[in-house]
Amino acid sequence: MLTVVLMNITAANALEVNITRDLGQFQVTHGPRQITIMRRQDHTSTIAPDFSLTARPCPPFCAQPMQVAEGVTTIGEVELVDFMRRQLADGSGILIDARTADWHARGTIPGSVNIPFTRLNPAQGADDITLSESLSQLGVTEQDEGWDFSQAKQVVLWCNGPWCGQSPTAIKGLLSIGYPAGKLLYYRGGMQLWQVFGLPVVTPDGQLIEE
């Protein structure tokens, strides 16, 4: 189970580069490790080369709309951090890396669970068995006919950034089977904007990746 440990907000005073004016750092448990979420303090730090490209072919790497679907809220970094400190902390929320396994293996946002978009969208080939396995992590159970969303978790889905369609596809798949739109959040900035803010990236087993 993912847990979050809050750190004293006064710790922000000890850092030069804070997350917000009032928050310097906090911790997320990722697998067996505790990861400190804080921005890099090195003023010469730059974004990883994979996320500095500006001419990715479209399709498939096309600009995604700010609102991916009606009723689904798009969030930024401040809202994501708040989600990680609250819903992720108390178990009512889950943070989903909706990218394919090869992207996930190259680094993920701490606290994330990898459920590829292909496992959440029937139009991408997800059958009832695949959906059942995936949805069980979201608090959804299978009924004789359809799904029981009464205990569905608040879900933040993300992928590589504003040019990536993997999390939008996952969101549309969840909506198509009845997942409540009000419980879905879209972190449009994804890995690219997470790195732009100098926030930590880890391997799937929780090893901090230093660029």
Automatic annotation (TrEMBL):
It comes from the Bacteria. Pfam families: Rhodanese. SMART domains: RHOD (SM00450). Residues 89-203 form the Rhodanese domain. Keywords: Transferase. The keyword Transferase applies. SUPFAM superfamilies: Rhodanese/Cell cycle control phosphatase. GO terms for molecular function: transferase activity. This is Sulfurtransferase. It comes from Sedimenticola thiotaurini.
